[in-house]
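Archive entry: two folds, one per protein. Generate the first.
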Amino acid sequence: MSKNWQEFLRRRQKKVLSLVLCVAMMLSVMVVGAGAAFSDQSKIKNTEAVDACTALNIIGGYPDGSFKPEGNITRAEVTKMICVALNGGKNPAVSTNTTPTFSDVRNNANAAWAEGYIESCAAQGIVSGVGGGKFNPAGNVTGVQLAKMLLVSLGYKSENEGFTGNAWATNVNVRAAQKGLYDGLEKMDTSAALTRDNAAQMVWNALNAYEVEYKTTLVADSKGQLSSQITVQDKVVGSTNDKITLLEDKYEAKAITGTLIDVTQDNGKDTYSITIEDPQYKGEDYNNGNDITYTDVTADYSALKYQNVRVLVKPSKNGKDAVVYGVYATSKNTAQTGLLADLKMDGAKAKLDGTKYTLAKKNGVEATTVYLNGEKVLDGKNPMTISKWLDTNAEGTATNDKGSTVKLLATDGTTNYSILEVTTYTVKQVTYVGSDYITAGTKYSDDDYVLDSKLKKDDYAIISTAGNYANDKGRLDKATVVEGKITSTKTTNVTENGKTVAKINKVAINGTWYETSVAKTGDSALRMSASVKLVLVNGYIYDVDTIT
């Protein structure tokens, strides 16, 4: 359960227990994971870096499904990580020397496997041992040590940069900070043993850093004598002298940002298609700013829908399809979740569960979009704004959809909310359960719906439409039912311009109040002293079965 939902439930803890139970049930329906997680995923702090490095085959988990983010990484392990990264994610064909460079590797039962990687890194000047002809393969790697290795991988030369000698650590830290290798790790002690979590972040930072090259120029002094001057600069390639990151060079990959507006399971496959709106690369329009769709994506990223994301992708080239390594939410997203019953406009702001939120504007005009059950709501040919949609749908009173779940999203790094996602539900009673279908007023086949195996004849099913899910199937889930005798009732008229437009009915059973959400539940069904079954969606009555 997300932190936003936990906060939402905390604020409503004084409300009926059934609401809590129903919300928990509906979340189990709605929330779809954004890919396989490690068993100790909650302990990982640098989630994007770990996910990206895992997807790029640089670092992995353990056989028990854990990642052990707090564990230290060894000097031997880091040489393999670097060799794989510099070989585009593939295990390189490394070799060993007749006479080993280091005396404590080849005959070390726990380190012999890494000799080829260690020799390769040593040959490239990435590692240089710990002195005395030893490498100390089982020793921990510190932050500054890994920084030096990554800087050399980016093209820096130790002899030019002072990465050797007494001041090597200071020089490395200066360059590492300049290249962003410590981004996100500002509080890390660079001289301490590095955790797997932080190692992944440093490698990910390095992959997104520009490679460097050395340029030699002739400089004339006051007497006209020429001398060579060597300077380092970001490496440029191609006819347009573009800078190139390590990720682009070794993986031929790009990190595209934009809004994830669609996730659909590929027909007959266990893969998905994703669509990115307003794609950007290095702060400029990508694909001419037009939506871009990638197919054969190996994970379901529905949980990131409508958020600003970073797509790690190897673009199509020479007739080969694009390869998506991973999709990650950027730090620009802020989400507020709740129920439609608690959402309305308060002046120019959206008010959800008592808290006001500013709506995004562009050129002084509200620039927001509403997605209803996965479909963009239009006002003519343009997207309907949140405020206009709430003119007729606020609090679910007029539309009888109080139990609908809502999510407000700000995706540009501000707290200006630009997207409203709404998921609605209907309730029907099950009249027949077949082997591959359920009848509830109409026939729901497992070709078009995911059917809850717990549903039986006479149960009530909560139905949500296909647009909410990547597999393009709707869902039928067993509804929560509260049974008992009505001991109190309330009816409140909702008026607009002096006219009654709706009635809110409330009933109490065993001391707990329940509120209606659909027109079917009127006074005759919810009369005093009646024994009833209340069918609930997120705590609101969507249907009622009178017992006596």
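Generate the second and append.
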Amino acid sequence: MLRRLVFLPLLSALLLTLSYPAFNFSFLAWFALIPMLIAIRGEKPWQAFFTGYITGLLFFGATLYWVGYVAIIGIAVLAFYLAFFFGIFAVGVDILAIQFEKPRLRFAVLVSCLWVAVEFLRSHLFTGFGWALLGHTQWETLPIIQIADVTGAYGVSFLIVFTNVLISSKIKKKMKGHMPEPGYLALLVIVLIVVAIYGYYKVDQKFEGEPVKISVIQGNIPQSEKWDEKYADGILNKYIDLTKEAAKDKPDLIIWPETSVPGFLETDQVLRDKITALAKEVNTYLLVGTQTERAPQKVRYFNSAALISNKGEIVRRYDKIHLVPFGEYVPLGNSYFSFIKKRYDMGEDYTAGKDYTIFEIPTQKGKRARFGVLICFEDVFPELSRNFVRLGADFLVVITNDAWYMKTAAPYQHAQPSVFRAVEDRVNVVRCANTGYSCFINQAGKITQEVKDLKGEKIFVTGFVTANITPGKAQALYLKYGDAFAWLCAGVFLFDLTLYFIYNYVESTRLKRTKWQQHTTSSVRE
């Protein structure tokens, strides 16, 4: 009992944690769920839930430890909440195991569908938290993740769980002394080979289009200084100096990170004049992260990205659509959760934007390039990226500030969704982060350029990098149909589960009727 309830969940949690940054042993994900799956089989539903919950609690606590740098209570609440999804998955597996007397291919497919459905639910429930999806572990295994242009990241998760289930079923058979069935493993190998062939083909795919030269600035401003007025001039001067250096590469666009402007760009006249004058001086379009305040009736604050032309004009602005709950606003903050707002001195809430702004810049060859901007963790939500591309964005820009989380795995974990957004929509993604990780990602999810120092350090270093991107897009099925694969998986599982309960009800009714008839016949004979 101790092995099932403690050791096996601990082993699964450990293997899962090692699959993500900062360890990046992605191959472990293909085996990480096996201990938990073995522990679940044959247990009562409450025991299965407990096994799954403990696995999830240990995994999320270890993987998202960096949330504790912002609030200790934050990581505790988040881990306890997210662990419920592992518990739900475990109960579902237990029910499916009862339904099937012997491990079958159908069982592996349904368990994989269940995992996808649970991940999809986690990514949307209560505004969603699609961080650390199982498929994200393969962010550097390019041939495997190319199927995301059809299935999204959930397809990679499905494949990993499918592998875990088939292997765990074989182990379970051996433990019971049954002879293994090689057919299923052979099928698994064939599936993986087909996925790899498709992946290698897509990785080598060439894109043709008008090149766009872009520079990203990594200011490396400590979080303790960002909003301190006495550092404002120094912060601005740092960005000005880096911008002038980057301008020597003659880029079409220079990008600053999220909230890099130390103040309100549109309402602070002195600040605006300095930054617009800089754009004119370097004769380059400048995209900056800034706060915006508007007060037609009530003062409202926005987390924004503003595009400044080479003539010093603010031409367009994007206001962040998907805000961070308890970070940028408190849900129902003026009513049920007002105590949280007061306890942590969260100040004014940000207001969510409504428009998918498409920015446009000229290139050096006289063409026009269009792009959308994702601010902070908006790149975690594939529907946002997809909407920008469907509206005509040739590439995507992610501006963020991960300085909150210190020198941890957080910046690299945050880059994982960006890689999948590039593959899903077959667009370049340009990441610009205050303290890193800043990089260029091509349409195959390959990281082509990074901001780093002479020692190879990539986070908490100051610098910039300039690179050419080719904005040509392929017509990815994901771009057209979105998360149809995730909906299909949820539908397949729910349909099968419904049939299971109907079958049990019919069987139960039949048995009761048979017993009643037997009892009636017996009474008549007497």
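Annotation attached to the second fold: The first strand starts at residue 212 and ends at 218. The chain has a mean pLDDT of 90.
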